[in-house]
Amino acid sequence: MKPILPGAMLGLLGGGQLGRMFTMAAHRMGYQVTVLDPDADSPAGRIAEQFICKEYTDQAALQQLGAQCTAITTEFENIPADVLSALASFSTVSPDARSVAIAQNRIAEKCFLQTHGFSVAPFAAIEHVDCADNVKNLFPGILKVSQFGYDGKGQRYVNSETELVDAFVEMNSVPCVLEKKLPLKSEISVILARGCDGSTAIFPVTENRHVNGILDISIAPARIPAMLAEQACDTAEKLVHILQYQGVLCVEFFVLDDNRLVINEIAPRPHNSGHYTIDACITSQFEQQLRALCGLPLGNAALHHPCVMVNLLGDLWQKGTPDWYYLFGQTFAKLHLYDKKVARPGRKMGHFTVLGATVDEALKNALLIQQHLGSS
What we know:
D-amino Acid Aminotransferase, Chain A, domain 1; 3 domains
């Protein structure tokens, strides 16, 4: 692949906060960006050189994007895979349609991982009511919609076949995956990039805490044994090579009580748990996404400070604009707001990252800031 150098126009499918941070990284490195998103008030669309406010399947919009962009990427995995295939006839597209098709469908994803020998939770595809029979070994379990579920949405805990049928009907009888609930010690993620030449760069393993299915805090590096971190990185690297993946990919793992690792899911894009890389790594995940897309050498993914990233949800805005003064007074903290105009409960409005000499120091200070914001 011939390298795509600064000055080129890059295309971006999706205009949310991930797209906004990619666009900011592209601008810093001298590239231009065209965003395609159906939301007229998209955070990335407001700062891009060009904004096409159309549906992702709009043929005229896709032709325009393909004609004016040297390379095209995505900010989330729910772009129809055939859209990526169509764009590939115009421009370089990363990630490719095959990888996205696997990652955007939980049934396809679980089957792919299992087929290639990766550890996953015991599961069954539930595509119609009759599939709810003979799955007693999967209870207690979690029923998840196969597509378009995120941040805990599209999921139900079930303890019996009766509860499974009821939940399946409540979820409009769309294809689902039933996963056995496993005894968890913690949840971690590995974000890595793979270039067009097959080279890889792996960010430090991140320890993640969730509240109501939404990521609350990410801690880097994860407080897990070194051998377990190495195993997670090796597994993620093996996966991107099998996929022949180009771009940034996140692999989410469950750490079980006996320290076994099980892959929860994969995301073919930068990830919420990797936002800390903007402030705490030599190369951010968004710069890495651009480097992989443009055929450039991958950057150094090393951590220069232990850190903690905290999500800021719309709940904080329900009594008015949060009091940021305390946070700004902490010289080890960095605030990132996504310029979203409507602050709904559960909506990701921003994040802050706290650096420290140690993980424990960063976590202590991050929790103090989070507590202050919640009580202000």
